[in-house]
């Protein structure tokens, strides 16, 4: 089987992330990783907190603590939430790790040696009130492109355009709020992306056929506009230090690498963290996933559209310039925005549902299923409590949960605590088997293609097939005249429950485990079932003990909806 490297956008350290962050990167990466593992592939799912840059310093200052302490606490808080969502990372690292420092500095030295980094004197914003040069995010103002008045000096959150601090209108210090800013000269390192333009274009041309249109169109837009040389160092106290053995003057001034230079390298750094964290007696080869791995590893990356340019153009330019055989991404799965009643989720403005509050409100599987079933793939999608409740009630509670409960409860009442034998399968079971095999093939096809909404629809259709079969056979009537026929119907339905448990695991792992756990099987695994194997619907043998699990999904009532809207806001949020 193939080796699959999977990464998702690194969540920034300053605060708990919202549902838009979850569906735009980490959750679909987790679903895909789980699916691949079930299919028997060797999978490594890597993520980390992105800890450098000005927001971390500003957040630490607001919290009244050191940046290192703030990041350590925030990393643990984020990891707890992701554990609650059952994100099955192989490793969830930190971009402030010594492994990332080491590899980032190695990349910088190689780029310098190869002529793709140069030192330049530039004009930079200086704040006399603060007594320091202000890195990009320490400068706020009005975006010259869209007029947004809270744009940062590196990027406008509203229109996503990349900026320089000197581009902003009416700039002010994010530290003190002072508008008494000056432009002074200082020295920084620049990555000469312009010299790598043609190489990046050729690389994109070789790979974009495997990317969704969103990713390829964003990459092409950036390449059409032309790659510009960009400063990759900043005047900060927190970050990967510029190595003194290569740039002694800049190191003495305390320069650190720009977060967007070291953050993508952290995917490699976090893999080394994973290897270094191996328990006694276990050896992990981190480098085989990244170095000279083009023919042995398929690398799939997940991120929202604002991050796509950095990973389809900017980081590939860095890797190409290093002139070493580091693994480059094969597929970039980009996502549009998830909105909240049509308005943008915003970490900085605390608008929308944040992941910790989501878990306090309802179990993770409710959120996982809804977000994947409504993933913002071809366009933006909107979260509303009304849509959320309708999806949970119809798909999870009625279609899946009710099927599981009524089959197992009725069989236990009529035939006891073991799977009944009953009659030989007939025409209805043969038709069902063909339909299940067809839908499972469709589900696999969409999962392989990273088409999440279509995959969720195929899974929902699989659940519906069981309900249609149950309505057709009506074992509650059948048992009055044909007990063996009713036993066959229930045994077939129990096999469907076991199948649902396996194929639903990537989306709803907790509920899937509960369904599997209903049957006392000697080898209870979530190993994938092929469409051909599923067709027979005979994996659960007669005589297998079973129990009736607690209700899998509680319906969301009108009273629940009212309380959720009151807490989180509704259409006027």
UniProtKB/TrEMBL annotation:
Cofactor(s) the record lists: Zn(2+)
GO terms of biological process kind: methionyl-tRNA aminoacylation
Cofactor note: Binds 1 zinc ion per subunit.
UniProt-listed Gene3D superfamilies: HUPs (3.40.50.620), Isoleucyl-tRNA Synthetase, Domain 1 (1.10.730.10), Methionyl-tRNA synthetase, Zn-domain (2.20.28.20)
Record-level Gene Ontology MF annotations: ATP binding; metal ion binding; methionine-tRNA ligase activity
Catalysed conversion reaction: tRNA(Met) + L-methionine + ATP = L-methionyl-tRNA(Met) + AMP + diphosphate
Binding site for ATP: 347
EC number: 6.1.1.10
SUPFAM superfamilies: Anticodon-binding domain of a subclass of class I aminoacyl-tRNA synthetases (SSF47323), Methionyl-tRNA synthetase (MetRS), Zn-domain (SSF57770), Nucleotidylyl transferase (SSF52374)
Residues holding Zn(2+): 143, 146, 156, 159
Keyword Phosphoprotein: no
Enzyme class of the recorded protein, top EC level: ligase
InterPro entries documented for this protein: Anticodon_Met (IPR041872), Met-tRNA_ligase_1 (IPR023458), Met-tRNA_synth (IPR014758), Methionyl/Leucyl_tRNA_Synth (IPR015413), MetRS_core (IPR033911), MetRS_Zn (IPR029038), Rossmann-like_a/b/a_fold (IPR014729), tRNAsynth_Ia_anticodon-bd (IPR009080)
Short sequence motif 'KMSKS' region: positions: 344-348
Pfam families: Anticodon_3, tRNA-synt_1g
The keyword Aminoacyl-tRNA synthetase appears for this protein: yes
Stored PANTHER family: METHIONINE--TRNA LIGASE (PTHR45765), METHIONINE--TRNA LIGASE, CYTOPLASMIC (PTHR45765:SF1)
Role noted for this protein: Is required not only for elongation of protein synthesis but also for the initiation of all mRNA translation through initiator tRNA(fMet) aminoacylation.
Record text on subunit structure and interactions: Monomer.
Protein name as it appears in the record: Methionine--tRNA ligase
Organism: Streptomyces violaceoruber
The gene coding this protein: metG
């Amino acid at each position: 089987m193939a080796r699959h490297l999977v990464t998702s956008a690194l969540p920034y350290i300053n605060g708990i992330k919202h549902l838009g962050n979850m569906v735009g990167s980490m959750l679909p990466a987790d679903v895909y990783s789980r699916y691949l593992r079930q299919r028997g592939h060797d999978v490594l799912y890597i993520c980390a907190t992105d800890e450098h840059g000005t927001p971390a310093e500003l957040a630490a200052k607001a919290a009244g603590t050191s940046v290192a302490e703030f990041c350590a606490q925030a990393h643990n808080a984020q990891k707890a939430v992701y554990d609650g969502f059952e994100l099955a990372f192989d490793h969830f690292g930190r971009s402030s790790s010594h492994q990332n420092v080491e590899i980032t500095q190695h990349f910088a030295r190689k780029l310098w040696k190869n002529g793709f980094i140069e030192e330049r004197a530039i004009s930079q914003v200086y704040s006399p009130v603060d007594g320091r040069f202000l890195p990009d995010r320490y400068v706020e103002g009005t975006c010259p492109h869209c007029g947004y008045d809270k744009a940062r000096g590196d990027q406008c959150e509203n229109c996503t355009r990349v900026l320089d601090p000197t581009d902003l209108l009416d700039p002010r210090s994010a530290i003190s709020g002072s508008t008494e800013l000056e432009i002074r000269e200082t020295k920084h390192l620049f990555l000469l992306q312009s010299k790598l333009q043609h190489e990046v274009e050729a690389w994109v041309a070789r790979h974009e056929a495997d990317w969704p249109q969103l990713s390829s169109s964003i990459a092409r837009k950036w390449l059409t506009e032309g790659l510009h040389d960009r400063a990759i160092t900043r005047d900060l106290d927190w970050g990967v230090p510029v190595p003194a053995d290569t740039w002694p003057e800049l190191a003495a001034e305390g320069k650190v690498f720009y977060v967007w230079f070291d953050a993508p390298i952290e995917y490699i750094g976090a893999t080394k963290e994973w290897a270094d964290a191996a328990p006694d007696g276990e050896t992990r080869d981190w480098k085989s996933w990244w170095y000279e791995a083009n023919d042995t590893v398929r690398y799939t990356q997940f991120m929202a559209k604002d991050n796509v340019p950095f990973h389809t153009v900017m980081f590939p330019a860095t890797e190409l310039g290093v002139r070493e055989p580091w693994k480059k991404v094969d597929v970039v799965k980009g996502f549009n925005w998830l909105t909240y009643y049509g308005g943008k989720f915003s970490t900085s403005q605390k608008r929308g549902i944040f992941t910790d509050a989501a878990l306090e409100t309802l179990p993770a599987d409710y959120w996982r299923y809804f977000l994947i079933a409504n993933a913002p793939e071809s366009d933006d999608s909107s979260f509303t409590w009304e849509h959320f409740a309708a999806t949970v009630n119809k798909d999870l509670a009625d279609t899946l949960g009710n099927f599981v409960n009524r089959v197992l409860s009725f069989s236990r009442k009529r035939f006891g605590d073991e799977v009944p034998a009953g009659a030989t399968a007939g025409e209805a079971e043969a038709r069902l088997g063909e339909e299940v095999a067809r839908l499972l093939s469709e589900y696999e096809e969409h999962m392989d293609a990273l088409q999440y909404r279509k995959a969720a629809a195929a899974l929902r259709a699989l659940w519906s097939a069981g309900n249609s079969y149950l309505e057709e056979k009506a074992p509650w009537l059948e048992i009055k005249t044909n007990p063996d026929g009713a036993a066959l119907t229930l045994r077939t339905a129990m096999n469907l429950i076991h199948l649902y448990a396996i194929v639903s695991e990537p989306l709803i792992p907790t509920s899937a485990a509960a369904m599997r756990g209903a049957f006392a099987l000697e080898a209870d695994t979530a190993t994938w079932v092929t469409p051909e194997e599923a067709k027979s619907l005979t994996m659960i043998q007669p005589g297998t003990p079973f129990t009736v699990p607690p209700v899998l999904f509680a319906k969301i009532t009108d009273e629940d909806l009212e309380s959720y809207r009151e807490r989180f806001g509704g259409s006027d949020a």
